[in-house]
Amino acid sequence: MILRNQSFDSVDDIAAVFSSDYYDRFAERTYRPVATLSYFIDHRLWNASPVGAHAFNVVLHALAAVAVFYLLAAMGIAPWWAFAGAFLFGVHPVKTEAVALASNREEILCGLFFFAAFALHLRGGARGRVAATVCFLLALFSKEMAASFPLVLFAYHFYVTDREKPFIKLLKDRLPEYLPYVAGVLLLLGFHYLWLANPGGGADWPGGGGWRTFSIMSYVFIRYFLLLAVPARLCADYVIDAGNNVIVPAAILFVIMMIAIAGAAVRARRKTHASEPIGDVAACNSIFFAGWSAVLGFAASFFLLSLLPVSNIIPFGETMAERYLYIPSFAFAFLAAALLERLPRPHTAAVCAAAFGILFCVLTPLRLAAWQSDLSFWQDTTACAPRSAEAHMNLANAYLKAGDIENAMEQYALVPGSEQTGDEFKYRYNLGLAYRALGDIEMARESFLAAVELKPDFVEPMYHLADLYAARGDYERGLAYIQKALASDPDRPQSYFIAGQYIIKNSEDAAALKQAVEWLEQAVALEPGSAVYHGALGQAYLRLGNMKRSESELLESIKLDPSSTASYHLLYSIYKRTGRAEAAAGIYEKIKSLGTPASR
Question: CA-CA distance, 43 to 12, in Å (whole number)?
């Protein structure tokens, strides 16, 4: 998504982050401008280098761990144990999906600013509260999971600092503190549903809604808890079978857990004595003096409340993913730090902290090994999720990309027997790619036709069908698919580029070449910063004999991308044909320096 998105190339594209074009331009389903703008930084600092993008994620994750340390300290946990909790947060294996995948940066940014906002709020003071509000807004516009912040803050006051106050009085006294955060949530909802609404952002409830959805998500929450407690078998794709026999018992167990948490709240508040430190002044000491019921109650509340935005109360199209635990995993770090601090023997606490730290430091690199390449990643995913159609299809795609057609076909054969995701059109398209790589043109054509029949606006198979028909001499039929693709996706510059290239490659007719020029001019108008589009337009003008316009477009292409060898070759031919020997010689030397000398 990051490396292939040319919308990050130009500073002018930043304006699209704040426009209704945001969702189409940046391949997002929800409004996350802070995360999107961070990808502009990637392109500016390291020219879209994957190494730079991954290093940026690691740095942000380290900063998030530092924010966790300050948050634990603000809660009154002693520095050594706050450090231990933050360290366990930083090296927990469940973070690998969020940190290892550069396009999951929104999880890290949201967590970083969420924890910073929480710590600043607890520190208090007018400046601290203003800074906390700014951090909260940054978290919220990194990812909507931060919407749980006001609820989490209330849970902290409910269990810890204001345990002596009745519920209504607590809410009345603290409400002014919560209003800026509630206003921020309303602002995000306004962007998402009113001002920059995404017409294609809807989804269905898992299980169809009602009790079934509640049961499935209860099962998911319990699995989330187990992943934090025992991160032994992690997976990139969790297939949740709605017919699983444990779904309903899991829902019942979840209800029992909720009752237990409510009971802990009652017990924690009944045990409060007037002599205990309360309120903001003593907030930094209150965790230590709070009873175990309060500590466990807050940890459980934080875990559950921070998961609410991904609980499918508002359906968003995904049931379970490890990256959603980035913020909720603070509950584990908090509980670990509080437990270590309360152990009667500090040496025992230190040994326990070291043991868990070493265990996580072993498990995390082992998990990261699965992220070394597309092939290793999807091999690992099919092993842990053998019923995932998406996993088998993507493993087949990885084999196909590596040139291993035999293994690719084996994996494609497993997709229909897996749990279907509703994306059969992608399966048919990818199968067509495999058949085409095998040289079975007829089966490739049938697969591409099936993909288009399943999804009539799916343009990629249309491009392949056009090429297949052109290769067997049926130029007009291929052109019909090119035109159909343009009609299906008229705002995509690549569609006009592919259409223009189709004519340049397959036709000598002047009228057709003029049509190619029109299409390529449209591609350039939609994306003026593309060296490739300017170069293709220069080639089209050259085929029409318009040397002046061709030279202008090729020079622009070279200006945008000084390593554009194709544009240098075309420019060299223009200079030779127009008798500009000195200019041709200069271009020839440049082509030699790029390693692809032209014929003299």
Answer: 13
